[in-house]
Description:
Number of strands: 16
CATH topology: Double-stranded beta-helix
Number of domains: 1
CATH class: Alpha Beta
CATH architecture: 4-Layer Sandwich
Order of helices and strands: EHHHEHHEEEEEHEHEEEHEEEEE
Number of helices: 8
Shape: globular
Largest sheet: 8 strands, mixed
Strand content: 15-25%
Distance between the termini: 34 Å
Amino acid sequence: MHHLTLTPEDGERLAPLLAGIASAYSVIEDPELIRRAPVLARSLPARLLEFLEEFRLGEPSALCVVSGLAVDGAALGPTPEHWRDSQFGSPAFRQEIFFLLCAAALGDVFGWATQQDGRIMHDVLPIKGHENYEIGSNSLQHLSWHTEDAFHPCRGDYVALMCLKNPDLVETVVCDAGDLDWPAIDVEALFEPEFTQMPDNSHLPENAAESTGDPAVDRLRARSFELIRSWNEHPVKRPVLSGDRLSPYMALDPYHMRTDGWSARSVAAFQGLCDQIEANMRGIALRPGDCAFIDNFRAVHGRKSFTARYDGSDRWLKRLNITRNLRGSRAWRPAPDNRIIY
């Protein structure tokens, strides 16, 4: 794990920076704030920027954690019951700003029209009724390990999590591709475009509002949901591995993959990879103020089950998707500076 702990001196430098930005904006979803984030990020402590740059370019680990961000648990108030409207009047606004600036040092943040109503920064928290549903807001069921948005050609380079509350020390589980015994895996078979991956449940229309109130946006979003439906009914064949055959990048989500029509070699190679991942999975319990950046090409991640209380004290994280190639999704976005993939 690539790890840095903020010092008291870092905190003293960050306090006026975050306060100044918080006084200029009211919500983290402000398009101007998100557009300016890469410029504002240059004011982060130099040692933090150097640390994030080493993670980005050197790939020393598939997991990077920045600890030591101050979080006042009493000021946070109760964990929201749902992610809708949680960004307005956010008691964690300054922490959200720090999280956004760190993400902007790694790449460009973006969102999905089909996830959390097109928001850039998501809330990860238990939702009543989702306990046994394969989605990030479940609790009694493990969140199966996966590559974030493995089904989509525009998946992010990193998925980032910032912890606000985790009273039960629920573990996020991560497997680093660097820990796998690649010579024991049929890598050549996994580089072939023979594997079908379906969209995960978080992109389904039943988890979104019926309307955004903007007819033009609703039309684009309807097109996105139709594409999700078509990919579920007629999944596209893609490789599981890419990049360097000696140290490959991965894209897989076994819970949303079905082996119908795969060759015997493909099935065996896939199972061999999954067995290796299971054997090398590691858990980390994020604590308030921890910001974790998971390399979405070099790791899979999930979460262990827990019992939600629904009394305002439950685990509460923020999540961001980050890409190093925003232009790569231009065909999916309505304008060059629009951060939402439709």
